[in-house]
Amino acid sequence: MFSIADNLKSVRQRIQKSTKCAGRESDAVTLLAVSKTRTAYELQLAFDADQTCFGENYLNEALEKQAELSERLTPEQFNRIEWHFIGPIQSNKTRPIAEHFDWVQSVDREKIAQRLNDQRPDTLPPLKICIQININDEESKAGIALNKLDDFARFIDKLPKLELKGLMSIPKASQSEEELSYSFQLMADNFKHIKEQFPNVDTLSMGMSGDIETAIANGSTMVRVGTALFGPRN
Ligand SMILES: *Cc1c(COP(=O)(O)O)cnc(C)c1O
Q1: Looking at ligand 1, which residue's alpha carbon is closest to its atom 11?
Q2: How buried is 223 (Cβ within 10 angstroms: 0-12 exposed, 13-18 middle, 19+ buried)?
Q3: Which residue among 59, 103, 208, 213 is best mutated to probe the pocket of ligand 1, counting the most ligand atoms within 8 A of its Cβ?
Q4: pLDDT of residue 98
Q5: Inter-axis angle of helices 40-48 and 59-72, to 10 degrees?
């Protein structure tokens, strides 16, 4: 039985090792703790072990946990947390997302981007955005096709309350190691291309519990890890 603090330690070691193997800077990769279905208490345990970036998929669940954590932590502690929305977005849910998150990584429609921009409170800094790419052209999966990327990036870049930060992808689950590497490389090539056009772009969000190493070897700057930190989900 491992604790969340133990799991964090071993995931951080996996990240360090792969980053070093790839000859990249030791701080090149950020760990996003994917805390969907986890309790506020479990998030607090991770926070106590110095984890400050959390990714949530379900809006209502996330808002409840944010409210509970804001009571469990001091305001100074709570403000150190960076909240990432990484789940599917319904257009009638954009306002609370724009109000309660720092990042949205699952943006794949102009309508959603426009609404997040319009509903981002003026008192908050621009909302950081990753465009979700459907890298293996899966019919049932969210994300845009690569051939739509340039237009969509330009669209987001023009919206003043959004800051384009990069790309996110969830590759197809049943791929060989080779196919998976190829998918990640394709993401990395397109990331480089977008980065050249938009100077604030610095985030390539790819890699999960099972493929942290492959993602980092292929240029990921942010891994999104749930199971390896918190255990299997029900
Ligand atoms: C659930 C989820 C993850 C984490 O997956 P694990 O395999 O549990 O690490 C990462 N990214 C997204 C978008 C998710 O929905």
Answers
A1: 224
A2: buried
A3: 208
A4: 98
A5: 60
Q: Are 56 and 84 in contact (CB under 8 A)?
A: yes
Query: pLDDT by residue (tens digit) across 4-54?
Result: 999 999 999 999 999 999 999 999 999 999 999 999 999 999 999 999 999
Q: Is 227 in the pocket of ligand 1 (CB under 6 A)?
A: yes
Q: Name which of 210, 200, 206 is nearest 218 in CA terms.
A: 206
> Which of 7, 34, 233 is the best mutation target for the ligand 1 pocket, counting ligand atoms within 8 Å of the beta carbon and taking the most?
34
Which segments of the chain does DSSP mark as H helices, in order? 4-21, 40-48, 59-72, 75-80, 94-100, 110-119, 149-157, 177-197, 212-217, 227-230
Specify the pLDDT at position 105: 98
Segment (H or E) for 169? strand 162-169
